[in-house]
Amino acid sequence: MSSGAALAALIGIASAAAAECPRKDALGTSRVLSVDARTTPRVGLKSFPQTLPLADREVVLTFDDGPNPPTTSKVLAALAQECVRATFFLIGLHASQQPEMVKRIAREGHTIGHHTFSHPFMARIPFDKAKSEIDRGIAADEMALHGTSTTTPSTPFFRFPYFESTQAQLDLLQSRGIVVFGADLWASDWNEMTPEQELKLVTERLAAAGKGIILFHDPKARTAAIMPAFLRYLRENGYRVVHIVPAGAQKSADAR
Fold first, then answer.
1. By CB count within 10 A, which of 36, 65, 161, 244 is most buried?
2. Which positions are catalytic?
3. CATH label of the domain that carries residue 166
């Protein structure tokens, strides 16, 4: 199966899973948004002038730095309980160490993006080394997911570690048709805090912003701990979750 066909199959599985959500009162996934590098090469107001075309109270859930089985599995369980789909930006090294978890993330209908191989400060290293980090990360994720080492991502979504990049790196990704994701708000879960503090922080930020791409880190135990309560907050306050896929993926799935 080609990577495109595999992705289409996964989207089809995800659509079927959403349609058969066992909990009628679940938050659910309200719609699927196709993201095209040709029209939106970079998104996220924390880093760029533009973001995704989201309506008021629409959110995109994203998770960085996984997979980490003990915590990623808890995040996945919380998402599954509410029939919600998210996007996971994987570190290639972690993906190569946990291929079964990578497959599980995809099998449960989530989108897999890329986050370099070893999570360096990209703006502080030579261009050739940065390019290698991008390529090795994609290749490791693809090997874990499809058993094929390729630098052409089946999902052309990328996020820079620490949101740090150079213009040359941004131009490289744009030339390859890869969307660069920033975020509109984040949980700051890299800082030491209690789960209760994180939940209060991210819900207050979301209430102020009204919508947006939200950044979490699934390897963080505090994030895994708050996810059921955070999703319940979304449901009780009228927020809707949007699932992002590459341009063409939804069309391919609909044609199946």
1. 244
2. 64, 217
3. 3.20.20.370
